[in-house]
Every structure is written in structure tokens, then in C-alpha cells.
């Protein structure tokens, strides 16, 4: 009974169908029919004109987006526990040619205008210190917490006032929108580029970088090829994304994972370390309790000395979830 | 009737089957069962211990391999028309952090010890000039020509004598081995790392970097993640590769594409610009003749003023091939 | 009465003499007679064989040394307030091709094995996290505090045990050795490469990178040229360094600056924020007190809300120093 | 009797005087009085507003200028024998983060609109090929040949029409202007940034990057620091440059070196491989003749199998020059 991560879950049948249907030969790279449909599909979804490029991984999506916003001598403000800082093997240093991640604090891995200001205000405007050029926030955050539309808007306004670009790592954007129940555009209002994740949510190997500022996409087209991320059979990536967008499958899957997480959260009650707003649950559990859960067949990551991280997937088995909730209550 | 490229052909049914079979949850990245089988599978194939890592594209395979061989201040000798120089959007400059490609000449885009020496012998051994650290050759070459085992061995011996690493871009390694009829190991003898291509040969989005020098793989593990190429559902890439290796499907597909190319080559006769040893045909054809072929429904790339490039795929339609051969004869 | 920094002080007459004497034509870059003397001069000074290269700035010295120790996908542990992190405009990101600075804590900007361990022990040994490859310490530290020989030795032993290289930023190495009264080798025992500063200590534009591990120098020779730091009239840089080494001028100048700082420190008494062990004084002073000092003609940097940083130079005017000491006492 | 290079010649007395006069303490980096005078001095010289930054070497000047013009995924067209391609140890790859040098042909190492077009016209406007973003020309060229004002203007117009920036490597700009007898502005009309060399012409270690497009300078300020080229005692670099500009000392020195070269050229007559327009002479001489010259005490570089390169300096000894001319005539 696997609650380690959503990153290796099964692929949704609709995604498989779309990939198989895309097997008819078409032109290579992103010149095929399906890849050409992405801009339209995302423009419909967000209710405004945007440009979208596929890539295979969230790391590539995040770093390509940021590389279009930040020169090599600049900096990006992100949370100290952001994925780009903590879990991408230094990819931002590679893609941004040595630009600097500037680490901000914030409850549940969320930033605020104030926490960003606390990082950038002390930076002297001289050449001896790296100057910030962008902010990156994660929706939902590393702790499964969701920025409310007004929180995103406040950060966007702050960024704009300071001349900073705004990127959103939306590896779990679906879970965030499912939680908020708002229009997708409201969950990322004012953002210049969004890494829209599908792999953790039923996809196989395709994420979208959605640019609300089109000049950025033009740069990323070159950078994507230069990074070896322009797959020749790109139609299979486009097919995955279009299948996920169709009939809001992405949102349904996000809701499914969230619902399951909520069930576990209810069982965990006062043990919760962070509000459960998406599909991640962070618990206080002792060594003995962790051992007990594992002895019952549940797999998950330790989180610090007395904690655990559990992640639910779009296709979580209700029996497993019920069993887990029961086991947690019984601790 | 498409002869533009092999890079967007259909995926082989056995590859699809293997991918679908891999859908059961497993651990993420390259810690799954299938990914762990790669080293063994390639060690069997090559009859010696080697390490293999999957990536999605040939560009990533080539550049990750080279990045493990060449420091940022070094250089790589390759043919002036090599893919890494001409068609990868500057990816070597990115992955190798500004290392230099040193361009050599050679008939049919093949190098020889002599043509490599012609590039590196004039380089003074001082800090004002970039020093070569590796050689990269392409099997089969950009013009579909194949290095004989003794030709590879001569280059490998030369490289070793000069203290240079040797990389082989094997985007069409299958076609080369099919042509040579030798053991795979003989087609790449003395090579430190091989980009073993599957995408042009029935795969969907998976290539292997095969390291015959294991220290290189250790570096590339980090670099692959850093480049955003460590897919979380990596089992689907491993599945593709294992399916291609099973029962030598890769070789069968290579043979099929070669056979078709040979049929067209026979029709082209004296029009051939290069020997047809793999699945690419380069012809002399006038503007009028190109127009004539296109009017009959054949698609292909112009090659210079009076030439054409035609590429065959593993699943070429015999009727299309017959029609093309006939059309060429009739010109 | 300038106490802003030692970085713009006058050039020592012996340095001028040596530069003027070096004007006779010699061979370019570092092939001249004087540049060839550096290895011997530093080997004598440190009582062991070492290799030394000149560069114009401390930033270049630090970053070139580190670039030879750390691959682009690696990391360097340094203090959160180290010069390489806070004041070099992102130069490590540039020279190390995106490698990561890993920020450690420590009183008075000094590291210990424990503070280094606190940073690296939580790093999982997997490809998702950047792995440390080196440690950089500053002698004297950013707060003018000096590592005792046994402190350096403890860090060196720890680094060696963890497989990490050790770099020392010795922009004020002279002040540190002057304070310690030990052999220069003891002040940097176990270090792989030392940035030995002269510019803040009577030089014009020359620092030495001293390699106790010769393989590193071989790489840096290429990297220095590649960074545009191989001056064609390098004899003038070598001349400066040799003049500073002659008769221990570097040490005399360091002592002179320290002595003056000690005089001011004595006046400051309980206002001191850090022990004064080199030529920097950090004081608690209120806004009003800062204004009062400035109104008397003293220039210095504010340090936070209620502090000031004063730096003394090798050629500080005794009258200015006396006046400052008196003014501080009178606050 | 040294004719190896102008790069290690003596420093002009006026430069020494200016440096010694600059020894009075001033503020650090480029905030001192002298550094602030550079913009005005160059604006006067060129008769238009421009911005100028000092750096220690021509390599740094060239690469910093180009880095402000070309993104990491772009390219720079230069001559196959340009210094940035052949003699800077791969510095453009470092500073431009892997951007590509695109090598053009041209008599005497000079480019023309046609030779640039021959390189860039075949580049497809797609992401698989690196796109050109700038052109770099050398005034005087690697073979000591000078672009006439109308030649520069033609290249500038071509570059503008193609959306390319234009950089001029003016390591020997003084020699070029001395030869042309025109206003300095005419020798670099339409150029976006000029590396104005002084080190080969009587300076010690200071070159200027002159920006005719001010936005570029703003980027380079950060990049210069990031590259470790912002010397803290920058006033000594500014002093050198201002001394060279005063009373057109740069031009006098250029004329002196040119005059001497012309004297040798007259002696060489039909042996000349290139027109002698600056301070470099390329001769046909056999092995025996080279040996003969060397036996008489003349030092110079071999140039290919049957050639020699001789370079004259601003302070060439008339007796040496006379002796050389005589020796060449006597061959």
C-alpha cells in the first residue's frame, strides 16, 4: 500500500488511448497536429491567449521557464524548501548558467510579499551582489498547501512593482485548483509562466510550460532544443496533455487524489503538521508508530525525526486508503 | 509516401506492449525493476560489463556522454557535418559548459585518424588554445555510411594514443550493425560511451547511453538529473529499451529499414552521392526531377542545389518503396 | 580620515619599485623570469613544494581555485556571510558553471567541523540533491576573526574524511598570520589551495593562488586564460607579489594594520561585536554616535541598524588612528 | 632584437607617471575620480556619447562585450583566424555560456558582408540550428590589415539589416586609426561595442570596452564583477587609459609602431604575404632564411612552413629595425 509519492503512479487509461491514437505518422518535433493544438487548448482553459510547450519533466519545465526570465548574473527568489532548490539536483544552476537561488522563508513553504521583501530588500543595488530578477512560487506548495487567488495576486503585484518576473511551479496545480474550486486562471493570476504538471496526475511523461507572456516562449523554443528536450516524436507528449485537458480529466484526477488525502487527514487530526489542502499529508508520528504503520504494509517517507510524509494519487485504492485511515486512528 | 525522416515513424507494437505492461506501479526515477535490468541487458548484448542509462533523446544522450569526458575548457573533435555540430541547437555548448567542437573533414561524414590528426596536430600545447579531450564519431554517419570494425578500432587506438576519450553517436547504430553483420561490440570497439538510438528505429522516446568505462556513468547520473532528464516514470523508458533488445528487435528493425534503402539505392544507381550502407539515400536530382517525384506524392528533403535526402523506416510500406524505386528509375 | 576599507589604500613603495624595475621587456604572459620565480618563492615561504599563479583580483583567485575542485554539478560549503556568497556578484556561479554554494552558520563568520556537518549531513546521497565537493573558509574571516592552526587542522581533517577539498580565501591572510605569530604554513595547514591576498595589504593588482595540490594548478592555468585573467604583461603582477614576499613585507604590513586596529579596539571596549584579531573592527554604535563620528571626519560603513565596520590599512595615519580612538572613547 | 610581439613591450613613461599620481587613496572599484572620467574622455574622442569600462585584458574586453550582445543559445560570426576563435583559450565559450562562434572566411582575416552572408544564409531559421546574434570584426585584423571606414560601414549596415549586433576587437585599434588617418569614429562607425586596446601600445594592464549602445554597458557592469574583473584599485587602470588618451598618445604610439613596420615592409618587398597596414609583417622566408635571421639575433614567430610573423612596438629601437631591414634585404 504505497503512499510514497504520486510521481510513479499508473498512467490514466485516457492517456494511453490518446497516445496509441497518435501513433499514425505525423511530422516530427513539435510540428505535428497535436502539438499545434496546445496553444488553443490552454488559451481556452485559461480564458486568455497563451502559448504552451511540452517537455518531459517538471524540472525541465521549471528551469526552462526561469531561464527565459533571468539572466546568468541574476537571481530567483524561492522558498528554502522549494523543489527547484532542494530536489532538482542543481538544475537551476545549469539552466540559468549560474544564476542564484535566493531563499525565502514562509509557513508551509508558501511565500508572501513580506517574506520575499525580507530577502531582496537587504540586497544593495550594486554589482557586488546578485540582483533578483524573478520569483518562483509552488502551487500547491511543497507541504501541500494552496495559495488562494488573492495570495497569488498579492505576490504578482509585488513582483511587478519590483520589476520581477513571476514563475509558478504547478507540479500539483491540478490539486490546487481542485481545492480552490476556482477558475484555473485565478489560481495563477499574474504569473508570467506556469509549469503545469501532468505526470503526477495520470500522465506518463509530459508537462506543459504555459506562457502568459509570449516573448518568453520564443526563447524557450530554442532553449528546449538546446537542452535535448525537443523529442522527435513530440506528438506523444502533446497527446498526453490534450487527453488530460479533455473534459477536465486533470481536474477530476486532482479532486480524486485530494479527496483521499482529506480522508486520511481527518483520521490524523491533531497529528497534522500542515493543513491538508492538496494530496500530501505531513504527520507527527514517532519511530514506533512509523514502524507500526510499515508493519501493516504502508510505505511512505520519513519526514524529519518524528514525522512522515504520505502522498495520494489519482488512482488510490479505496481499500488501502480506508485501511490507512483506520491504522492512523488506531495509533 | 513519407521519406523525410525515420525520426517520426510509428512505434513498434512490441514497444507499446512493453510500455502497457510496465504500468503497474513501481518505484520512481531509475529505481524500478526494469531500469535496473538495463546494465545486464546491455552487458549481455556487448559481451562485456557495461552500464546503461536511459534518456529521452539522442541530443541528451550525446551531450551527457560528452559532458562526462570533456571539461568546460576542453574540446571535442567531430565531423563538420556531425549532428552535434549541425543539428542539436548548440546543445554541446550548453551541456559541456562552453567546451569547443573542433571540426574535422572526411568523406561521407566519416572521420579517420588522419583527419582527426589534421585538426589536433596544429593545436599548440599552451593555454591560449583549447586542447582536445575527446573524439565523437557517428555510426552510421550523417550520410548513412558505416564505419567498419577496423576503422573504429583505428580511431580508438589513435584516440587512446593521444589521450582522448571516444564517443560514438549511434542514433542509427542498429542500421550500422545490420549492415556490418558483425557482433555489436565490434561495431563500437574501443568506444568509451555509445549513444544507442532506439527512437528512429521503433521506439517512442527512449535512448540508451552505454558506458564501457563505468566512472563516466557515475557522473552522468548526476548530470542527467541536473538536466531534467531523469523522468519519474522512468520504467516506461526502460520498458521501451528492453523491448527493443528482446530477440534483437532493434537489429531486425535496422535490417528492415536497410533492405528498403538498398532497394531504392539499386534504382538510383549512378545518381548516388554516397554509398548506401544504412537507411539513408542521397541522390543527385535536378529541380525538375524533385518536383516530379513530389508530384507523385513522395516527400523528402532537398539536399543542396541538386540533391535529395531520402530516409527509410523500420516499417516502410513495400508499395511505397516499390513505387519510389520505379519513379526514380523513370526520371 | 578613511576607515572604509583596506581595498583602496595606497600601494607600497617597494611594490612600485619592483614594478618599475620589471619594465624591461621580457616574454609575455607567465613565461617571464619573475613569474617563473613564484613557485620557488612560495615553496620557501611555506616550507613545502607548491605552485603559485597570479591573478588580478581575489574574486578571480577564489573562483579559479574552487573551479578546479568542484564539478559543475557539485557544491561548496561556505559561511553564509563568506565573500564568495555575499560580495562577489555571483562569480562562483559563473566560474563553477552553476555549482551550488551551501551556506553554513558559525560565530564571527568562522566554520567548524560541526557547522559544516550540519549542512552536509542532511544531504541525501542521491542525484536529486547537489553533493558537496569542497569547503571554503576565510582566513581572517569576514568579521576579522582568525582560525587558530588547530581549528584549520580540524576542518582539514574533517574535509579529508568526507572526501571534500579545502579552499582558503586569504584576502587577509597576512593579518591572520600576523595575529597568530605562527609559521604561514600553520595558518593554512591541510588546505588544498589558498587565495593569498596582497591587494588589501600594499599591492596594486595582484593576488596569488597557491596550490598545495599541484594537479589543481594544471587545470587553473587553462581556466585562468579562459577567464581573461592571463595578462600579457604578467611580469608586473609577479613583481608585485615578489616584492611583497621579500623580507616578509606582507607580514610587516599585516602587523601594521593589525596594530592600528588593536588600538581602536582598545578604545571601543565593550562596544565590540567581534574579537578584533585582524584589521577590522565591528562596533555597536547608535545612529547619533555614527553621525557624531562622521561629523568629525571619520568615514566607515554602517553595519546593520546599530553598528559600524571600520577597517585599517597597512599605512594608516597614526594621527587619524589616535583621533579615532579618542573619538570612540568620547562617545 | 625582439619582434615576437607587441604584447610584452615596455610601459610608456606617461603611463607610469599617471599611475604613480593615482596612488593617493580614492574610493574603490570604479567609483574613483579617474574611472568616472572615462565616459567623458571617450565621448570626446569619438564625438558622440558613449560609455566606457576598463578591464585588464583584451580577452575580457572582447568576451564581456559579446556576452552582452548574444544569449547563451546564440552565435557570433567571426573570422576563422580571429583572436576570439584561435587564441583566447575558449574564453567566448565561457563568457557566452556556450554560445557558438560561426567561422567565416576572408582575405587577410577581414570579413565582408558577403563572407558573413556565406555563413549565415545557409542557417535554417529553426531551433535545430544556432541562430546568429552578432558579428565580431578585428581592427586591425589578425594579419595587420585595416578595414577602411566604408568597409566597416558596409558590415555595420549588413549587420543591422540582419538584426545582428556588431563588435569590434580593437586590440590594435590605434594602429588602424594611425594608418587610416581618419577620425577614430570613422574607423569603427556603426559598431555597438569596441574593445579599445592599450596594452599592446604602451599600457600596462588596462583596456577599455567602449559602448556606443548604452544598455550593453549596464549588463557588463554586472558581468565584469561576476568575472572577477572589477579590480578594487581600479583607479590605476583608469589612470593608464586617461594617460594614453591625453594628447593622443595612443595615436602617436600607433604611428610609431606602424612607421617601423613600414620600414621593414619596404625591405621585404615581394616576400610580403599581406599588405602591411599596421604593425605586423608576414613574410615568406625559408627555413634557412629564418635560421639566418635568428643567428643574427632577431626573434620572431614562425608562420606556417615557409613564413614568419614580425611585430613592431611603439618603442622599437631604430637600430634594431634598421638592422632587421638590412638583414631581410640581404637574404
Automatic annotation (TrEMBL), chains A, B, C, D:
InterPro entries: ArAA_b-elim_lyase/Thr_aldolase, PyrdxlP-dep_Trfase, PyrdxlP-dep_Trfase_major, PyrdxlP-dep_Trfase_small. Residues 2-286 form the Aromatic amino acid beta-eliminating lyase/threonine aldolase domain. Homotetramer. Keywords: Lyase, Pyridoxal phosphate. GO terms for molecular function: threonine aldolase activity. This is Threonine aldolase. Its cofactor is pyridoxal 5'-phosphate. GO terms for biological process: amino acid metabolic process. Its EC number is 4.1.2.5. It holds the Pfam family Beta_elim_lyase. It comes from the Bacteria. Gene3D superfamilies: Aspartate Aminotransferase, domain 1, Type I PLP-dependent aspartate aminotransferase-like (Major domain). Belongs to the threonine aldolase family. Coiled coil: none annotated.
Amino acid at each position: 500500500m504505497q503512499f510514497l509519492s504520486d510521481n510513479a503512479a499508473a498512467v490514466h487509461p485516457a492517456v494511453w488511448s490518446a497516445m496509441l491514437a497518435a501513433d499514425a505518422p505525423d511530422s516530427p518535433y513539435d510540428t505535428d497536429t497535436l502539438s499545434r493544438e496546445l496553444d488553443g487548448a490552454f488559451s481556452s482553459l485559461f480564458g486568455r491567449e497563451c502559448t504552451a510547450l511540452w517537455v518531459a519533466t517538471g524540472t525541465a519545465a521549471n528551469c526552462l521557464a526561469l531561464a527565459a526570465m533571468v539572466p546568468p548574473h541574476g537571481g530567483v527568489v524561492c522558498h528554502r524548501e522549494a523543489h527547484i532548490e532542494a530536489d532538482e539536483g542543481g538544475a537551476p544552476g545549469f539552466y540559468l548558467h549560474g544564476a542564484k537561488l535566493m531563499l525565502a522563508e514562509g509557513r508551509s513553504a508558501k511565500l508572501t510579499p513580506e517574506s520575499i521583501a525580507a530577502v531582496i530588500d537587504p540586497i544593495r543595488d550594486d554589482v557586488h551582489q546578485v540582483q533578483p530578477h524573478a520569483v518562483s512560487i509552488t502551487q500547491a506548495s511543497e507541504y501541500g498547501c494552496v495559495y488562494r487567488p488573492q495570495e497569488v495576486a498579492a505576490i504578482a503585484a509585488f513582483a511587478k512593482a519590483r520589476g520581477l518576473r513571476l514563475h509558478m511551479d504547478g507540479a500539483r496545480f491540478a490539486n490546487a485548483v481542485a481545492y480552490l474550486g476556482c477558475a484555473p486562471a485565478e489560481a495563477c493570476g499574474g504569473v508570467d509562466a506556469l509549469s503545469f504538471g501532468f505526470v503526477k496526475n495520470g500522465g506518463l511523461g509530459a508537462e506543459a510550460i504555459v506562457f502568459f507572456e509570449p516573448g518568453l516562449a520564443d526563447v524557450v523554443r530554442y532553449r528546449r532544443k538546446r537542452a535535448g528536450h525537443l523529442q522527435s516524436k513530440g506528438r506523444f507528449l502533446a497527446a498526453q496533455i490534450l487527453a488530460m485537458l479533455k473534459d477536465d480529466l486533470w481536474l477530476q484526477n486532482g479532486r480524486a487524489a485530494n479527496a483521499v488525502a482529506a480522508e486520511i487527514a481527518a483520521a490524523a487530526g491533531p497529528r497534522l503538521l500542515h493543513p491538508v489542502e492538496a494530496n500530501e499529508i505531513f504527520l507527527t508520528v514517532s519511530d514506533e508508530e512509523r514502524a507500526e504503520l510499515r508493519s501493516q504494509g504502508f510505505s511512505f517517507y520519513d519526514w524529519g525525526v518524528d514525522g512522515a510524509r504520505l502522498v495520494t494519487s489519482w488512482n488510490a485504492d479505496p481499500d488501502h486508503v480506508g485501511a490507512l485511515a483506520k491504522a492512523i486512528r488506531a495509533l
